[in-house]
Amino acid sequence: MSLPHALLGVLDARPMSGYDLARFFDAATGWVWAAPHSQIYPTLRKMEQRGLIRGDDEVRGPRLTRTVYSLTEEGKAELAGWVATAHPLPVIRDPFLLQALHFDLIDANQAHDVLTKFIEEQEQLAEEAEEHRDKLLNKDSELLKERLSSRGPAEHERIARLKAHVFDGIAGMARYKISWARQGQALLLE
């Protein structure tokens, strides 16, 4: 997934400023993509140059303006085309798996402690994903509310369930990783 497509997906719900987008991605526990501020603004400029988004200046106070970005028809087509295309799996670059691959080089108790920390992090991730899933199912997410405001009421339940399904998957993967880590802890004790 590329940052431009993540930005297009968010902007499809409602127009936002670069600052609003940066704040949204800072709260990435409620979403599936993280983006540093240093990448958002240059990417927005490139997307605007490509005609995927349009930036409109909005007056904020007596001397302040901000640029609010919205999707163009070209941006909507780009997003729809990207979503409808099967993409190859990303190359695996998981620092934790690399670390676990070398657990035989350290004391079993040290490796056990590393796995314990990993389990704690995965439990937190699963809980946060389940909490967000429930918010989506209850249509209690601000971005979802914005998206639903421009869609017909007959679609609302389906849209909420599709989005919740993603976070159910995140929680399920975290729960599987917890099980995998516990199996690793058992192997360390053999």
Structural summary, described in words:
The structure is a single chain. Helix content is 65%, strand content 8%. It has a three-stranded antiparallel β-sheet with strand order 1-3-2. The protein is mainly alpha-helical and 190 residues long. Helix 6 packs antiparallel against helix 8 (153-188). The relative contact order is 0.11. The model has no long low-confidence stretch (mean pLDDT 92). The protein folds into two domains: 3-83, Winged helix-like DNA-binding domain superfamily/Winged helix DNA-binding domain (Arc Repressor Mutant, subunit A); 95-188. It has helices at residues 3-11, 18-26, 37-49, 73-83, 95-101, 108-137, 142-149, 153-188, and strands at 16-17, 53-59, 65-71. Strand 2 (53-59) and strand 3 (65-71) form a beta hairpin. The protein starts with a helix and ends with a helix. It is built from eight helices and three strands.
